[in-house]
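Q: Here's a chain of 358 amino acids. Please give me its 3D structure as tokens.
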Amino acid sequence: MQADRKQFLEELMAAWCPSGFEEEAQVVIRRRLEGKCDEVRTDVHGNVLAGVNTSAALRVMLAGHVDEIGLMVSHIDDNGFLFFQTIGGFDPTMVTGQHVIVHGARGPVQGVIGRKAIHLMTEEERRAVVKIEDMFIDIGARSAAEAAKYARVSDPVTLNVGLRYLLNNLVACRAFDDRIGAFVVTEALIELAKRQPRVAVWSVTTVQEEVGLRGARTSAFGIDPHVGLAVDVGHASDYPGLDKDKRKIGDVRLGRGPILCRGPNINSAVQAGLEKVAKAKKIPYQMQAEPRATGTDANAMQLNRAGVATALVSVPNRYMHTPVEIVSLIDAEQTIRLLVEYVLSLKASDTFIPGAKQ
């Protein structure tokens, strides 16, 4: 991965942005895009929209959501401990014992999610799965009054887990779901700006996907694209314990390219076009069955206005919605290549009506 692209990824992963609080990551996105495309703007919802060749007749929207799951302070007790609720879907067993950052008005505050020592637990307590409502954050405060100087009810909280480089071009971090998608669509647009596509291309780093696909819904309404490509993460099945899960999600491995899907959320003409380009350009890819709505920005885009020809391109991800999600840098690069080559293959006269002659 080239140096400037790698630096951008590191800055993006270091930013914090739970759903509804995406500003810091979007600043990183805008800084990367400035001067590299025809238009960059932020809408009232917080989506960052960047365009190339925006006056062309056929409009394509690339979407990767920038928000991450997080926590929110819901109560401060008399002793200064912070109780919280989740923003998005957390596995409670992944939260206990984590370092966190409380994003207060006076700046970030370090804390930990504490738990009774195992030596002090009863046998029943050891077997029980601790509930979110029973967890708390310890910032070191001695009282509610002292804690209130640094945090208040409604402050967002993120897990304090940074990017780590592993073997074989793998990287681990919190929030690759779906910061890697935001990274991919941003880099794809930068590449497309250099190669003069025949269609209008909008890259959108969407907000609030984890709480209802909201940013994709509003930005798609504004852009009114003919084609929508959502880039999200997909479940890899190449680690222990997933033998039976392969029957559902397939044999998906890190380092073997992006995931393409077929199913009712996927326009058949767009999907076929992606496969055709991947084969022609020798871009490796994997297939996954999606027999229902995907639960990604692709779902929101497909149902926009009178309908959008939509597809989902996924970056394989291990351990989704944990603090140690792992993706392959090679897969990310191949996903960028696939988006760029597919968009370059499009022209204004293309039709995406299922069953129509292409």
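Q: Can you summarize the key feature?
A: The chain has two domains: 3-68+174-345, 70-159.
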